[in-house]
Fold each of these.
Amino acid sequence: MRIAVTTVLALMLGVSGVSAETVKPADVKIVDGAVAQALTDKPGDPEKGRQWVMGRKLGNCLACHVNSDMADQPYHGEVGPPLDGVAGRWTAAELRAIVVNSKEALSPETIMPGFYREAGLNRVAKKFAGKTVLTAQQVEDVIAYLMTLKEE
Amino acid sequence: MKKLLAMGVIGLFAATANVALADEDAELVVDGQAFVTKLDAPADSPLSEILSGWRFRNDETQELQTDDFENPAMIFAEYGEELWETADGADGKSCADCHGDAAESMKGLRASMPKWHDGKKTLFALEDHINWSREEHQKAKPWKWESQEMLAMTAYIGLQSRGMPVKVKVDGPAADWWKRGEELYYTRVGQLDMSCAHCHENNYGNMIRADHLSQGQINGFPVYRLKWQGMGSIHRRFKGCMDNIRATPFKRGSDEFTALELYLASRGEGLSVETPALRN
């Protein structure tokens, strides 16, 4: 009997695999403008993060932020501060909080979308309802990339 | 080398053509008629100055609107004139049969829309007014909001107010609609969680990717938009904004969009009607 229970538990852990280690949007705690713990147990990949920052369908960070590291890309926005040197101005934990939900991390007035947040939104288009802009892993990738931007 | 150089030049040209911003001091003049595209905002306005969308467009687009032969929106106004003269509906009457010369009878109408309608006890956009008259006076079927006929007629009627200052009535029965419009303007919507104000009040003049953010003034509508390769209504533009921020848009002709239209018109009071204008 005890063996059976253990097996079931092991099976459950095994099946849930990745998701067991992924923090759900509602469970992310922003404390003093920072999210200390990574959203997944897999370290962020800066190369992938660079793609998400650039991609119009994903982060599209360039829509609002200038980034010298992507000088070959046209049309950097002017709405937010430049990404240059962002790693020197914020810690990874602070950047994670800003990307997850800037309204809580920075200011309730900010124009910046929350990229890992699904509650408290109005009239979300059906196609995007209940979805976050980025996945937990993509957020980690973006943070890993942003931490490479050391030069002002 | 020569080829490479040529490609470089073309590349440069393409880049400047798209992002080049207009000369800030340019003024809009069509056929000798000067338009107000910039004015100081009144004390109670959330804006410090009021700027027509024309001022945010690049030199080439601005230029096209100064010449009625170059402005593709004028083709729609001409079609509207044709429709004005054409009998329609069970009563076999044309607009001209009752309203005569539009240059007289329709002068100033666009500048004052949307407007409270006493008969229907609701706020009318210009499109509502046209369809009401079609049903009431011509016994004709209403046109769809975004149909070519409706766009042509709103362009033609709007043209009769061209150059006149926008001035809408926001008191009396329109007051509640104006309030509702203001509320909508400042309400965040969509997965990207933004309100109109985030882009068009706090960030006009800034680039968002390749788009130069304007104040979202509506004094030129319906407009020919190069991106659409066609004509579009104010409500179509609202819908486009809501789609961009991943929100479920309100319907064209909905109370919400008409209320927002009234509120936006009031924020742009004093600008000249530019209908039918040209935008990127």
Amino acid sequence: MRVVGKPLPKVDVRAKVTGSTLYADDLVLPDMLFCKLLRSPHPYARIKRVDVRGALEVEGVVAAITGDDLPIKYGILPVTQDEHALENEKVRYVGDPVAAVAAYDEETAALACERIVVEYEVLHPVTSIEEALSEPVDEPIHDYGGPANIHKMAALAFGDLESGFAQADHIREDVFFYEGNTHLPMEEHSAIASYVDGKLTLWSSTQTPHYVHRAVSKVMGLPMSAVRIVATPHGGGFGGKTDPFSHEMVVCKLAMVTGKPVKCTLTREEVFYAHRGRHPVLMWVRTGVKRDGKITAMHFKTALDGGAYGSYGVATTFYTGALQTATYDIPAYRFEGARVFTNKAPCGPKRGHGTPQPRFALELHLDKIAEDLGLDPVEVRRRNYVKPNTTTVNWLRITSCGLEEITNRVIQASGYHRRRRVEGHGMGFAVASYLSGAGLPIYWNKLPHSECQLKLDRGGVTAYCGATDIGQGSDTVIATVVAEELGLWPSDIRLVTGDTGLAPVDLGSYSSRVTFMAGNAALDAARKLRDLLVEVAAESMGCSPGEVEVGDGKIGALSFEETAQLAQERYGAISTAGSYRPPDLAGPYKGSGVGPSPAYSYSAAVVDLDADSKTGIVQVNKVWLAHDIGRSINPISVRGQVEGGVYMGLGEALMEEQAYRKALHKQPSMLDYKSLTFVDMPEVETILVETNDPEGPYGAKEVGQGPLLPVVPAVASAIHDALGVWVDQVPITPDKVLKALDAKVKGEAPRFGPKSFPDIPYPQCIKVDPPHVATQAV
Amino acid sequence: MSDSIVVGFTVNGRRREVLTKPHHTLLEILREDLGLTGTKHGCELGECGACTVLVDGIPQLSCLLLPHQVEGKEITTVEGLAKSGDELHPLQEAFVEVGAVQCGYCTPGMLLTAKALLDENPAPSRQEIAEALSGNICRCTGYESITRAVELAARRMEV
């Protein structure tokens, strides 16, 4: 490999250190207007009347619109098109947008918003999972779902649960709670629309220009051919910019109404309301094991607090049950999940989408089982690890799997088994797995998930791909793949990405799919171009194509430029195209669309910390993180993703929470929403394990999300190791540690966490034969 | 609406005079009046560090500075760090090489805060780096690579 696997700088990084990268809010168009949204002060209310006349009287205001101007609903999932860009019937959370103003400057727009009169009929808000499950005081939040305020329920059973539990020597039940938290991207969401010649262009800090394209087209009533979405360089996403948003729709509408470009940039407070962050999830798990720790059956129940809208919630619900089996061989598995609506900012996907919560529960649950059995928690896990090239009980196809190796490496590096056993010091271990891209698209179809076109002319090579660089380095991956195949440097490749008008479709930067899918699409296109150039060079050199070496700017004896010229003389204009669609991976049951992936990454973490029994304060000293990356396309970027994932995992474990007092956000500011600063961040030792996935580009798998997952349970496990108490609820703030210690002193169960799991009217389980049974039946 | 005022200061070595409102912040003046959009905003409340610029060599949050506070001052923004189009500041070089940039949105503020640190303390310890940069939030990197970059730049600048 010439450039793959080399620690090269990212192709877009010089612009970022000189301040020349133009993020969405840096863009200025001539005669541009500024937009502000008026948001609901009530968590739940009927809208009786919205009067914008006062706003229109303010000098400098050009337009003011309400929900009546944007009547068409949208949403990221086709099954939950439940949002209005501006609500016209009901508001469902504090911050729900109801009207918008466009003015010549932002201050005027903000001032004019205050002149809008909205008459509300306040309704009784629903603020917790428990409340959402009981009969509502007023009408349900949405006119779909139910009973009560239940949005979605799932119930699946794989294999023979009864016999699995009957075979167990030991059965254990636990309850856990994972508080919600938010992405907190440094860049506040921003979007600019312009409408010229009947064509609408939207520049937006989005991770998913393709899905925004679909939504804008629907809401504006324009064909997709009249809409172009440009994903601008991105100031941080983590899943928070994967939904189509109100402000995006509003600037499009205002641009069409006024005939002028319109920009809307959210304030930090508004970013907290836009949210779509980690769902709070209450979890109950019951597992049967043999004496040696081998799992015989598992029953997992979840209840998700979804907030006010659907967002990705249906998928999130299934994700809370889907990946338990991707790490552990569970012969019989039952999952029941329910998502409820509450009058809080809508939850959605955040790094790890629906899986950090069950991972936290599952890993701690296994620790407790190991303690019950008097076994080493690492050994209990090893005895249950899935093996490469197997299919799980819920039909997930496992190919490359480095679980054994990452475990050995991280245990060895950290000295876990030789750790100091003193009160107040502890180490914890956990593993996890994540998707290298969702195996199925959001809209089920047979189309490619990623497409790449290469243009070759006198200006060199340009790669066109819809993939969206959100800072993770996807542009660099595409450039590296193309450069590798053509014998060039990544910096030689011109890139046009994240633009639905210029580049072919890529589904977006979510589900850790970009390196795997856009990488494969780029590889496909680049190999076609390479074959073409090799053939031309071979003919010119009078040898067979197999004898032509490509590299160092040369195709055989010819320079790249000479070969390119010969190729154009022979063929005229030259372009090649490549695409990627994962194999059909869904199992034979409803709900099987969530979980399958063409490859799974694996991560193992050991956390070393000190926990103070007097103050409850936890100080993390070091984290070792071993990750099965398949293969590193760019080891600098991979390491960056691992370190960033560890950082975010520590934040979720110890301090980050999107918490509410009644239905009011408690801390919609960066000062009050606690996140790790420089001084809180411990040393991270990154260990990369390459398992060379057979289907990944050059063997690569994901790294953007997986490394966060084991960190959260490993922190909780290390606290138990240090103080002998379980904190079964994140974030593990000092007060929770102290309460667990109090319980221990009083002779109660030495833990802090939820006491019970509510009764949920889950539907009848869909019984699914596991693959080996189904195969026998055929 | 308040009356406009004229404020004068030096930005990246160039003397500028701007007609602005007395309640507009330096951040707004830089980005909106002078087109220096390299300075970022993450909260506009002095909480995140993204908008850090140097005022007479001292890192300050431009979102909290009003025109009268910067009258006659020398301001350095990220656009003023590189010596030329080709020659980056050693901190910028180090950030590029080490991979201390992911989304890049906190980077300008990090670079300027780090520059002020190295100007005052050419060989800071990891702890000193962490303390100096603790007012700058980064959500991508986990800070590790930024620390490595500042250390690398410090080593190179000492030579």
